[in-house]
Amino acid sequence: MTRVLVVEDEQHLANGLRFNLEVEGYEVQVVDTGEAALKLLTEPGTVWDMVVLDVMLPGISGFETVAEMRKAGQFVPTLILTARGQPEDVLQGFAAGADDYLTKPFDLAILMARIQGLLRRREWMRAAHEQTQAPPANPPAAKSDHVEPFVFGDKAVYFDLLELRVRDQIFPLTLMEMNLLRYLVEHEGRPVSRKAMLEEVWGLHEDTDTRAIDNFIVRLRRYIEDEPAMPRHLQTVRGVGYRFVAFPPAAA
User: Which fold has domain 150-244?
Assistant: First the structure.
């Protein structure tokens, strides 16, 4: 059974979420603080399929909670609920490691659709991972839906697995990190403005502080670049934004 952790301190909302999720057949546990959520999420041997996380919590915030989850290596799909729907708040959630967000008050049908979408993506990732780990069939199996990785040098991006593999290391990426990297790869060799990334990747059309995108680039450079302070693949284009170069010329 799919297990969902709800982190919400408003009792009536927590009860409503529990009821509606259980009606859909999910196993639900509710906690009211980020600290309690982290304890459950980092317990050895426990498996969660989804986290619904309020931002405004007593103690550490939802932003801090999801950031600590990711630092601990817990990459369960996470939907944050926020009463603060400004673009800067949305970007803060994505920068912390959230996969999606919904602004309060929200329509229940929309919430359920978002949850189901993230859970479907998790199942696709599991299936794709199993395909990559399975021994070759004999005779050859029918063509699968597994997406071939994008390979550049000794690095490979597995878009469907949300993984970046660098030599013998595997770096799990959040959905938002992977969406940004995919967008840059699709525009390989061309300068891409911060504004374009905000609009095309996250759908933020308001007057947003486009410097927020820099936090994502810094993180991706840590994974991709041999020397993050001297990037060769994720290059800065002064006054514009960034450019992804798969095969930069050899250094002189």
Answer: Arc Repressor Mutant, subunit A (1.10.10)
